[in-house]
Amino acid sequence: MTFTKKQRASETIPTSSMPDIIFMLLIFFMVTTVFKEFRGLPILTPSARSTEKVEAKRNITYVWTDKNNRISIDDKIVPVNMVSGLIGEKYAANRRLIISLKIDKEVKMGMVSDIQEQLREAYALRINYSTRFK
Amino acid sequence: MLLNKRKKKQTEITSSSMADIAFLLLIFFLVTTTIDMDKGIDLTLPEKGGEEVKIKKGNIASLLVNAAGQVLLDDEPIDLSQIQNVIKDKLDEKGYDTEGKPLLIVSIKTARDTDYDTYIQVLDHVKIAGVTKISIAEPEQ
User: Fold this and answer.
1) What is the ipTM metric for this complex?
2) Among A49, A80, B110, B139, which residue's Cβ finds the most Cβ atoms within 10 Å?
3) Ordered DSSP codes for A30-97
C-alpha cells in the first residue's frame, strides 16, 4: 500500500497582486470623486421626515436663496427675473436637469413661488426642495 | 595591475515601491472624497401653459396655509400634527384606481407671506400620508 504524499500548502499570502488591488480601489475613488464646485450661500434648510436621497448627482443644479432673498446660481448673485434665462441655458445643455432648491427656512412663499414660476418658464420641471432628515 | 571587476548593472525597475505609491494616491482620494448625498423632497412642476385638467371636486382636498402658519383643510382649521391622519383617512375613503394609485388630490395653497418652513412641514405631512398627486397653487396676492 502506498501512501499519497501530503501536499504542502504554501503559508505565505501572495503579495504580488497587492498593487493591482490597490490600483483598482484607487481608480474607483478617482472615478467617484466629485469635487465641490460651488459653496453657495449660508442657509438653514428645513427638516422633513419624507426626505429622500437624490440620485444622478451630476444632473443637479443648485439654486440658493438665503433669508435676505438673495438668489445665487453658480456662485453669482442674480435677480429673480434672471433665473429663467440662466436655468434655460442649463436645460438646453442637459435635458435631465434637476433643480435643487436650497432655500432658507425663513424665506417667504412669495419668493419661492416666483422662483418656481421662473423655472417653469425655463422648462426645468424636475425640482427638489433641499431638506434635512428629521 | 588589478583589473576591476565590472559591476553588473541592474536592469529591473523595482516594483516593490509600486504598492506604496498606489497606497499614497488611494489615501489622498479617500481623504478628499466627500460623500455628501443631496437629499430633499422631489416634486415635478406642471408645464407652463399646459392644459387644465378637470377633476371632480369631490376628489380634491384643499389645504390653505396662512401667513401665521395656521392651516385650513377644506375650510376647517386643523392642527399641523393632525394633517397626516386626516389625509390618510380621506385617501382610504376616496379609494384607489386600477393601478393602485390614490384618487385623492391634495391642493396646497399658501399666502405670499407664509414661511417656507411651514409649507415644507405641510408638504411633508401630506407626502407621509401617501398622497402621490399634490397640486401647488400659486400664493394669493
Assistant:
1) 0.71
2) B110
3) HHH--------------EETT-EE---GGGEEEEEE-TT--EEETTEEE-GGGHHHHHHHHHHH-TT-
